[in-house]
Amino acid sequence: MPDPTTENTYPGERLGRPATGSGSVARFGRRIVALIIDYTAAGVIATAFFGYDQFALPAEAGLSMFSPLVVFAILQVLFIPTIGGSPGHRIVGLRLVLLGGGWAGLWRPIVRTLLLLVVIPALIWDADQRGLHDKAAGTILIRA
C-alpha cells in the first residue's frame, strides 16, 4: 500500500488510484448529480406510496415528511450491495468498492447510509475526496 504521509498531486494518489478514467476517485460533480438523481427518485417513490406532501406543515404531515429520506436509505442499502452503487451512482458511471477493491458487502452500505443521512460526515472530506461516511465504512466511490 502507498505511503499515506506523502503529498497528493491528485485525489486518490495515496490510495494507488489512477488520476483519471476507470478506477479513479469520483469527483464532486458526479457525486452531486448522483445524489440529486437518488433523492429525486426517492421523492417520487415516497409520493406515490406514502402521499408525501412537501408543502405540509410538520404538524400536518406527521411521519410522512420523512418518507423520502427513508426511501432514499432503502435504495442505498438495497442497491449498493447488489449493483455496486445506488441507481444515481450507476447512471453517472460511478461504483462503490472496498478501499482495496472488491464488493462492499452487506454491512458497509448500512453504516455508510446511516452516516450519509446525518449529512455532516458526507461533507467532511480528506485529501483523497473520501467523506467520513466512506472512511468509516472502508469504501471508496470510483469511476466505473
From TrEMBL:
Main location: membrane
Coiled coil: none
Entry membrane topology: Multi-pass membrane protein
GO cellular component terms listed in the entry, alphabetical order: plasma membrane
Subcellular location: Cell membrane
Keyword Ligase: no
Protein name as annotated: RDD family membrane protein YckC
Protein species of origin: Microbacterium invictum
